[in-house]
Amino acid sequence: MTTAKLTLDGGNYEFPTFSGTENELAIDCRKLRGETTAITYDPGYGNTGSCKSAITFIDGEKGILRYRGYPIEDLVGRVRFSAVAYLLIHGELPDTAQLAGWRNDLTKNSLIHESMLKFFDHFPVTAHPMNILASMISSMSSFYPYDSEQEEHINLNIIRLIGQVKTLAAFSYKKSVGQPFMYPRSEYTYAANFLHMMFAEPTETYSVPKVLEDALDALLILHADHEQNCSTSTVRMVGSSQANLYACLSAGVNALWGPLHGGANQEVLEMLQRIQADGGDYKKYVAKAKDKDDPFRLMGFGHRVYKNFDPRAIVLRQKAEQVLNELGINDPLLDIAKNLEEIALKDSYFVERNLYPNVDFYSGIIYRAMGIPTEMFTVLFAIGRMPGWIAHWLEMRSDPDNRIHRPRQIYIGQPERHLP
Ligand code: SDX
Q1: Is the same domain home to 139 and 245?
Q2: Average pLDDT for residues 128-139, to the nearest whole number?
Q3: Number of structural domains the chain divides into
Q4: Position in ligand 1 atom list of the atom nearest CA 361
Q5: pTM of this structure
Q6: 229: Cβ below 6 Å to ligand 1?
């Protein structure tokens, strides 16, 4: 086995290394401080592995994203989101009987606790749906037993979270528009049920357009997991203290809400609308993004891991064209987005910094074509990411290397001093 050698303050040290399935190499520095008294310093953890994981593999240079070994391109359009959720959590795609049982469990657990309906009456109408979602998921631990040592509790809580997250999301939308809640229907797929709960009304017959059901299913699959991103790492960190599953996922929702993370899809749409309102002058905004004195960033561009292209953005760009064509929508924001992408991919500022469209750049165009309001975009991201968060929470709990997350620091404050 190769070792990493370190010379420090006249001392010579060796640390073991190990590799994963795809030959990624890690230096095991768990004994670094004990042997050298030094710690590593890696703000944002760009060079630090927090765990070993068998769930998702990303190759940022080659633009590869695989769930349990399957490239996302194999999964989108060929298996449903419910099957991908099963894959992420259980490690294998379900057979026919397993899928039928899983979908039945999810459907039967789509209704939220009736007492929780009253919570919606006490949020201001202006409440952001991510705030409502995080609050509701945290509150679920008050309504359902969560003894994390009982497998039956864990399995039922997983089903409840995946089954109810779409209901909580749709109900928060209905509340915001002053319409009655529409309950899920047992005969619908996961994506169709969400669209039904969002757009059906008690006075009308509503049938879910197949093009929208398929588009949403693809979007949920593309958002289902992404290894140790900010929100997933948050779920793992909160879980490392042995907090209950609901508390961990509520923390994940809050981390995802940030505009640099999942909140970017809302920011992208608002940026495109701002450019449109400003005469469509996208070159002006590219210049603003490059200006170090201007805090403006081209939202939906750049990624900590992808340094070539985000494979999800490739699929979503094609899906956006397809959905808008099938719906006969000519959205000027899509043209602005494509112009931004074209100019940025040739501009040295973006090329030198490996800034390419990410998953959030095109997703909002599709959500908008589906009639989803901008404020709900990040909630859709959370619905998709729910099985990924849960899969990582389960993996963390069974990881023999897992211990409570407690990073170190270098103190740069005042030296010791005393009151006079
Ligand atoms: C998601 O981690 C995941 O996997 C996340 C995610 C998932 O599925 O979970 O993929 C989902 O969060 C996608 C990212 C969505 N966020 C955005 O689109 C927001 C806009 N992008 C950024 O703010 C930024 O690119 C990040 C946050 C995505 C990545 O930040 P990094 O890796 O910390 O990079 P950085 O901020 O250090 O930037 C490096 C350079 C800087 O310039 P210099 O100081 O080197 O001159 O690139 C510049 C930055 O100013 N830069 C940008 C930019 N992003 C980075 N300049 C203009 N516009 C941008 N969008």
Answers
A1: yes
A2: 97
A3: 3
A4: 18
A5: 0.95
A6: yes
